[in-house]
Queue: 4 jobs
Job 1
Amino acid sequence: MSNNHIEVWNNCLKVIKDNIAEQSFATWFEPIRPVSLTDGTLLVEVPSSFFVEFLEAHFIDHLRAAIKRFIGPTGKLAYKIRMDSSDPSYTVTLPSSNRNFPKNPIGRPAPETLSQSPINPFAIPGLKKPQIESQLKENYTFDNFVEGDCNRLARSAGLKVAQEPGKTAFNPLLIYSGTGLGKTHLCHAIGLEAKRLHPDLTVLYVQAEQLYNQYATAAKNNNRPDFIRFYQMIDVLIIDDIQFLAGKTGTQEAFFHIFNYLHQNNKQLVITSDKFPTELQNMETRLLSRFKWGLTADLQMPDIETRTFIIKEKLYLNGIVLPDEIIQYLANNVRTNVRELEGVMISLMAQSSLNKKAITIEMTQQIIDRFVRNTIKEVSVEYIINIVCDYFKIPPEQLSLKTRKHQVVQARQIAMFLSKRYSNASLASIGQQCGKKDHATVHHACKTISNRLETDKQFRVMFSDIEKKVTLQS
């Protein structure tokens, strides 16, 4: 057996990659780095303890088989968790398969002066914790938050936070996405579950705009300390749409004190944003750095499978049965976001009830055209290919060539991705038109583009330019 930890881990990765989904491999295995191989124990470095928990819950069999194959039957795996790559002291080593993780196994190590509960500079001796209305919507639960590849990481992290608020490695939990993809629903679900499991905790959901208005009133009335004290009493604080505080320096300053006190006292913070933290403009650097202390997870546009599940869940809750062809029509033609999809369904059910007519494809089409403004009409795969090839200044015929030239491969993959999103063509049909490829190649291309959109800002800008040209078709 080899004693080279890098070689051993790379061999393990090759085996694991062949046995799990590409997206799962990219998310959970590519960030791992081998550290050492000593006495049959392979030490690897992972970004957080959440990685450890997720790996051991979902991929332990793959890990065990690979370790035994390349180290031997007595081989072991250990994890080194790093929160801040600039400081080697922020690490902890855990044995593989150890489910009894220590509370707060990682995190920003506090100085000796903070080893006990931090002193609240705004506290008033003898002030009792008030009864606070949580402002949570009872119908936004985990049970009716449909899980899919587009939201699995954020949902799993949110559930863990609700189960152990303030005691996991992802504090704060920052969730970001575009409009209507479920940020608010997930926030309320976290709050409701935390209240159910921990009725003694004070949970509060507040929109950032509301936070700003409260601060403005407090500042006007010269009782800013009272405003800060109030929020420092919360055990689980959920701030929705934090981007609203951009440029509002006074509120940011107050929230900085609130954040520090809650975090140091192991209180849970959940924050949502419409952008990745580094893309937020006019936010204090010290706040942005604190947002990165925990876990940042995004919600993506749901794929057709997830949209189908959402429709079926909504129908089930309303006691309505629809033919599969109408469900598929809805899933194929309302792609923008979950909120829009639910709005179409509500209008469809209301129209059917008021007019006492059965729901048909024709009625569904009329509702979609009326409800979804700027509806993107179906475009052909050929049209998309022409748009993409024109952008890259290559003839469409080149997509059919057997070449590894980066520009051609990239153009083909983008054409496949956009064809899946904006046409009703099957994967097999898309593959045939994009270089006579099979449906598996199209599936791989779509995952590749999706991954690049998540991780490559420059690529996102280029892709957005191409997508706009496709959607401008009349």
Note: The chain has four domains: 5-95, 152-298, 304-371, 381-471.
Job 2
Amino acid sequence: MHFDIHHAHPWDLSPREAVALQRRLAAEVREEPLAAPVETIAGVDVSVRGDRVQTAVVALRLPGLEVVDEAVWRGPVVFPYISGLLSFREIPAILPALERLSVRPDVFMTDGQGLAHPRRFGLACHLGVLLDRPTFGVAKTRLWGRYDDLGPEKGATAPLYDKGRVIGAAVRTRTGVKPVFVSVGHRITLDEAVALTLACAPKYKIPEPTRLAHHLSRKV
């Protein structure tokens, strides 16, 4: 499946150049309602072993969460691990994996941050802006912002704040289990991203799209 790339740029950047690019592209992020109901959603996950990377994309159909397609791509790591610059390490491995899909998902879910990022441009934002497709992040840990206590029950949420602005939400996907952190990537609202996260997490803490992609990305 071919995806047009918007705002294309080189990947062999210095950390300072990467930060400057994030600040520039952050202005392209749009937080807006989905244009149509979501029928398919794809989870994206990247595993790194040494100097090699393996990306998996798993597309599911809602509401039943049946797997309709999956793709894997393996290649070299092209950018070092630097906190806040994860997208420069992972997206060069995500884009070729997406080309191997036979379906065009309505929405992408990433294992990482969107707006809940120090420069409001996490992995989900970067991928969404490049594809100009609805994208949001579901991270296992908090990178940025603060939140108040949320109830222990499944479905409980609490806004994630930074300097008075809501940049995401802590979301309890299982009763009594630590929350995940949901944030907008591009062309979706936070309420929609939270609702999709809960709709895709009937049993486990991690929603099915990224949970299945994670398992696939770690297969040898």
Note: The beta strands are 40-49, 52-61, 66-76, 107-110, 135-139, 157-162, 165-171, 180-186.
Job 3
Amino acid sequence: MKETFLKLHLSIFIAGFTGIFGKLISVNEVYLVLYRMAITSLILLLFLSLTKKIVRLKNIDILRVAGVGLLLGLHWLFFYGSIKASNVSIGVICFSLVGCFTALFEPLIFRKKISVKELLYSLLTIIGILLIFQFDSQYRYGILLGVISSAFAALFTISNKKVSGKCTPINLLFYEIIGGFILLCIVVPVYIHHLPDISFIPTKADIIYLLVLSVICTIVMYILQIQVLKKVSAFTVNLSYNLEPVYSIILAMILFGEAKELNPAFYFGLSLILLSVALKSLEAFRNKAQSQ
């Protein structure tokens, strides 16, 4: 279990950089996500072809996995939309609502009782988000997009757990990314229709950022996450990912000077979110110790 939690927090640390790239990359969130998925798909296809490790799935399984990939693509779309509409700190802090959505969605999907404890932990996160929501009205649109993003992220992680046994983690990621890319291409024209005159040509710096985002922050991060999901619940993974804002906010303060834009209410809200993570982590370790 110790190795599993190490992998989990390594993936969280890597995830902390995804919001930073969302700010650094100049293209609109729609093309950012499409480029990220396209590059990731090509790299995975090349690797699996060279190593001859491609696992064939049944058509019905491909459709299911592709549907999970669409949830991932939609999460990214709204996540980067939130960052570009506000800032990195707001975009990543809204991601903390994933634990709340998971506490509601997971029991419905797996047909089990709703955990009162999980809802109480999530309540701390909700209060934290509400405090942040109130601190400046100019960020409310970005917060709204961030909330939608966290709902899709929760559905992705839960659905990912249901299909994780279909094949190896790297094959699963390949089918999810390429399936999500194809399905997202059908959805995004509606999104783009409301965003006229947006640039789709990446700069040289964008290309470098997209490569790092695709290899490290996508392939490496999600393979670690898939491995972790085989041993711990989706709720534990999603609530632990509330630590992601800590890394992203620190980096955003250093790189973009976002500390000037944040007031005490933001930090108090963030403290409540971190408290929910600490309580859940403590309970997870206690339960593991009692079962041994």
Note: The chain has one domain: 2-291.
Job 4
Amino acid sequence: MRRLVPALLILLGLFAAACGSDSDSSGTTTDDGAVTVTTAETTTTTTAVSAPGSSGDDPGTFAGTPSAIVSLNPSATEMLFAIGAGEQVMAVDNFSYYPPEAPVIEDLSAFDPNIEAIADLEPDLVVLPDAGIVDQLDGLGINSLVLPASVTIDDTYTQIEQLGAVTGRVGDAAQLVADMQADIAAAVDGFAAPATPPTYYHELDDTLFSVTSDTFIGEVYALFGLENVADAVNDDTTYPQLTEEFLLAADPDLIFLADTVCCGQTADTLAARPGWDALTAVTAGTVIELDDDVASRWGPRIVEFVDAIAAALAQIPAPA
């Protein structure tokens, strides 16, 4: 099952690219039609979710604070617990491995949601990665909130604020965002970017799916001044599947493996691939193993991802 996580990320990323989003630093408003949250500078908050009888243009207003939330979005699950709303979560999908106390129900799938299983739980809010079953939930009188894959780190902050508004934890969400911003800034400020940007390849799985710089993952690497070899691929997706020929020709200075758990990839298994032992990253010892979940989920643990990149780069000798 863990092997499906990279595929889920790619699926959600493609959905987000198709829908598009719009956010700014002062507001928390998205135009995907599934949720609109506007937070004033005061403590007054207006939150709109897809409520029974509402439309995409007028999603409706959630009355009260949900106390029986079902999350079919692993990143949203992490956000909910990070803002202190874990006690309001009654069930999460089978990809929500973190935090450990999240109430996983194996039959709940973000890939193929079972509307009957969800209805049997009698939730007062369902958090989703896409709008696929919103109409069905609406027909059953169940509120829903769609949080698609973040395209930028700021999108992640927006979603945390949205969940804070919905769950009545605006202050906790604002504090989490502020802490994340400070921690990321500290990690980046402590790094001295080289004069010539090193090139890198980020591996999502062992079928060579990767990311471009137009993703929240790519944005993390850009914070450190790294140059993404996948940006040279022009196939209209932010999650391209590369070829061995392309990667061997690109010869990246750094390789980051975000498929160590799902696919059992290591620096050794990568070096054993035909022709890969001659790559600069292999010969220089700059193949970096990452935790799949930390590196692939937008949410509070983006800070851990940034720290992991900073730590890895600090161990790489400067060029002579």
Note: The first strand starts at residue 28 and ends at 29.
